[in-house]
Structures are given as structure tokens and as C-alpha cells.
Amino acid sequence: MHVKSNPDEIQSFLSDASFIRDGYADRVVLPETIQEVSEILSAANHDHTPVTISGAGTGTVGGRVPFGGIVLATDRLNRIKSIESDRAVAEAGVILADFQRAVDQKGLLYPPDPTERGCFLGGTVATNASGARTFKYGPTRNYIERLKVVLASGEVLELRRGEKNFSNISNIPLPKYRPPATRKNAAGYFGSANMDAIDLFIGSEGTLAVICEIETRLVLKPQGLLSGIVFFANQADVLAFVAAARATLDARALEFFDNESLNFLREKYPNIRADAAGAIFFEQETTDETEESILNDWLALLDQHHAFADSWFATNEQDQARLREFRHQLPVLMNEWFARYRQRKVSTDMAVPDEAFAGLFRLYYDTLRTSGLRYTIFGHIGDNHVHVNILPRDEDEGARARELYAQFLKYAASVGGTLSAEHGVGKLKREYLRLFYTDDQLREMAALKKTFDPNGILGRGNIFSEDFLHA
After folding, report:
1. Pick from 332, 431, 322, 341: nearest CA to 393
2. pTM for the complete prediction?
3. What are the residue ranges of CATH 3.40.462.10 in the chain?
4. Is the pLDDT of residue 425 over 90?
5. CB atoms within 10 A of CB 136
6. Are 169 and 197 in contact (CB under 8 A)?
7. pLDDT of residue 165
8. Residue 449: other Cβ atoms inside 10 A
């Protein structure tokens, strides 16, 4: 075990991509084994010392920003233990890109693919992360077969899907609340009838236990892949194209870029047409037998919806990597903007049911076009989940941006949406959870927290307002 206490040494563990800057802690501990994690938590629990779990620091909602106590960093729990024909076992501190690369070398695929691939595997489980491929494959939850976690007391708990139901590990009944009827959800604890205990810990954002070891399900790597970035002259054609693609083609990714997003990307990609009002990034898996027919299907749909003929397509790995890099550049450019103006990030992560998306999308555009604020709209349109990044340059614009954000949240809540589709609640968004769950439902979640962490040492400030935990 390694311990850091020098202020200069621990500074990098006190923040994340949320740009919350006032975090502080007494020390950072870096265990190398599950036994060391157990010893750290047992001692902290005895002394009622807050423990904030730190992954790679790529989270956007302040989950790893500590306010006192100690930071437990999982950096040294970084071993890939095994990769078999349909399973892999790895520790929480393994970098997702390294894990996916190792799996790929075996001719296999681990489908979850959050945009920030420098994240830790444990962090993706803690937030039930998703990404572009979620459109076909679903979120992280769908691929977690076993977890080894350490509770606040120091007890090591092994949870295998289908083997331990909720009643085996808890002295309180199954929660009555249910997640929203959206394609993706990462807000609050999971709840369903006859749920597996493992699902409570997936997406719990470091508030119930320290995730130490993960067994994932793998699938065969697809034989081939067709991908493209296609440009359109107007938004109406973009939306019609997406609706048709969802209904008729087996895409694994459908991602959207509005005109403001393209304006940012033109800094690095000057060959984007000046008259493009929007774009879609898509991927679909192919075989040697189906590649030509699938390409023809996409070309016919693109022609039907007036896509520009000089859009970009890729069938080999090198060109596909370039298209994925294009997709990943926009969040990087957004983070550079926030860092430059030193304003807190104002970014939506809501998703809504299928029938409500057109209304939410219209609200975004009608409101933002007349706001005088700079913004981008991009992301997982196939899952009714696009990110609005409002880009304030000063405190006044920041206040106006937050007013618009609250307006968007209220609309999403009114149509049965979710506060967070993929990034979690953390500290930044916990007050907004009341818009999406009743106080009684939040008290049910808080009761689960108090069952597994009665002294409230883990992830203080994440998900819940303090009044729910002390009620």
C-alpha cells in the first residue's frame, strides 16, 4: 500500500472533469490488493472517516472530488487476470482502452464504449457507463457477470449474476421505485422486481462499496464494420434520416452533431462543408456476405434523405479509427473551452422515452437559438440522448446557462425522462434528482445506503442530499 499526504502529491486526486476546484483531503491511499482495501475501510469505518473513491478522474459530475477524509485511489488495482472465450476478469483500476485492446487481440469484443476511453473499468461499473455502441448493445450493466466489492465495514462481498438475490444480502425489502422507461439510465440506485443484488452496486457511484474486481461478459468481435460520417443541409433531414435508420437498419451506433458542433470541429477538420447544418456518425457490423448489401441500404437511405454525396465512409480499421477520432474530438474541444473560461460545466445528460424525444429536441433548439449563448448539441441520438453543452464565458452567462438547464430538466422530468443517461449524479446534480423521484423514493434509496454503509463514510455528497441520509 502506498500513502500520499504531501499537498503537491495529492492535488491531482482532488478534482475530475466536472471542474469543481475546491476539493480537499487529508491523504490519498493506493491499495494494491483487496485485503488492503478491506483494512483501509475497516479503519476508516471505525473512526467515521469519510472515504472518497478515486478512479481515473474522467467523471463529469464531481463524484471523486473529496471534501475531507481520505481518498482511496484504485490506480494500483490494475491487473487483467484472465480473458477466456466469453469472459474476462480484471481489477477496477485497469484502463478501459487497455482492457478493450487486450480483448480485441483475442478476437473478442467488450461492447461498452464511453467516449473517454482513458477511464478505469471500475469507474464504468460505478456509473453504469454507456456510449455510442449502447444503441445496439446496451449499457455496462448488461456485461457484468460478477463483482468483488468491499463494504464500508471492510467485509468482502462477492456477487455473481443470478446466484445471490437481493434478499440474501439485505435486511430490507426490495425497493418499490422503478427506473424511468428510457433506453439508458444512470441516476440513482437500480430497482426492479426480483432484482439481482449485483445490480444495486452497478451504478452506485462509490456510495455503497469499493468495486475491486470485475468479471465481464464478452462477445465475438464482428467480422467487419461499416462506418460513416454523413452531412446534411438541414436538421429536418437529419431527424428523418435517424428515424428511418432506427426503424430499418441494424446500426450499432447513431451519433448526432449539430451545426454549432461542426463549427467547433472545423478548427481541426477544415474539410467539413461550410453549408453542412448537421451530421450523423453511424456504425453497422458486417460480414463478407453482407457488406455490399448493407452499404447499398445505407446509400439508399442517405439519398432518400438528401445527405451530401461527399460524406465520409470507412470499411477498414485505419479509416474507422479516423472517424472515431472525429467523434471523440468534440468533447475534448468542449473541455478546453470550459478550462479556458474557467466556468463550471453546463451540460445536459438527460434522456427521454422514444415518443418524447422530438419535443425535447425542439425545446433545446427553440430556447438556445434565441439565448445569445454559445452552445453545441451532439451525442447519442439513437438513444434519445443528446448532450447540450452551453458555453458561458463569464459569471453572468453561467447564471443564464444554469437557468436554461433547469428548464430542460423540468421538461425531461415531466415526460418520464432521466436526469442522467450515462454520467451519473455525483455532487453536481444531486439536488435535481428530486425532480425525477419523489421524496419517498429517495428515502428508499437512502435506506439502502444506510444498510450497507451505516456510518455514511463512502462517497459523501454523491447522489444524495444530506437531509435524506440523516432523516
Report:
1. 341
2. 0.94
3. 224-414
4. yes
5. 16
6. yes
7. 67
8. 22
